[in-house]
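dude i think i finally got it to work??
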Amino acid sequence: MFSSVWNFIKRHKKKFIFTGAVVGGVYLLGKYAQKKIKEVQEKEASEYIAQARRQFHFESNQRTCNMTVLSMLPPLREAIVTQLNSESLTAMLKTKPANKLEIWEDLKIISFTRTVVAVYSTCMLVVLLRVQLNIIGGYLYLDNSVGKSAASPLTPPDVQQQYLSSIQHLLGDGRKHPSPSLSFVCPLTCPCVSPGLTELISRVKTAVQSSLGGVSLKQSLSLLELEQQLIWIRAEVDSGRPLSSYMLADDEDILADQACGLTENDLVTIRLLNETRDMLDSPDLSKVLSACLNRGFSRLLDNLAEFFRLPVSDSAPNCAPDSLSAVSLPLAKIIPIINGQINSVCSETPSHFVQDLLLNDQVKEFAAIVYETFSTPQELQK
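look at this
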């Protein structure tokens, strides 16, 4: 029996050798495949965790942006009211002065100017802080990523502080402002103040004077006609210098001055400012800012529409109560309405106006682009 088995093996020896080789090869291949699959799974898990951590950091950064915008609105409103003080004119009118008409004309220009400036500057503030805090947020993510030395941060705290103090160019005020609540401190105490807001006010005031200077206080305007006036004002403002110049100083010497006495970190601060300038000058940001302005002025008109509604009992049968031309008001009555809109536009409590800007899809998408750009290691960008 054993001899017959042995003879069978000898006759099929080559087949057994081939089969053994195949089985062994399949086994080794299976082991190799298992190893590679495990490596891929571990790599995917690591990338997923890193991506989740990055996404969490990004979303946290956006919440910080929103809170920072709200904290900056009171000083912005105060700066606008200080430069466009309509309250003093209102107080003078109560004394029944001889030059009452002249004061009313000044009040007309100042009231429209400060409301238009409030819309522009609030939109600019939202966009500028979204850019700045996502640039810093991106660098902070890299600083906290695995393998990064904490001894050599890309943006040291004092650099962050001086970089963010450049917001004063838009705020137009040298006093201390609330600090963003990231992991850095931003007291904004730098005395180097550039007149971005002052220049914006001058530009808007010229446009308002051109549009409304010749309109009589007795002339009645419908909401549709008021909207047309705002369109003309916007067209003249937008046809001037780039809006980004009101948000951040574009002169290289001013950018250097904004380093405010830093020594070895001067170049880092100026690099951040230049990177911000590049972002502000990009066509994508121009579209985002334009979308914010369109939404901002649309919301402003929604607020004004509340004062142009016909009482239901007085509505004509063939006239819709919400028609843009259904009601007209004398310009003298519109002025106080316009004058008070700054309190709604620059409100630190989340109003519909501010929420529309903070939740704007284009703002969110641009913020993600900025964060992605500055949170990606440079070697991966090459």
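The chain has 17 helices and two strands.
im so relieved honestly
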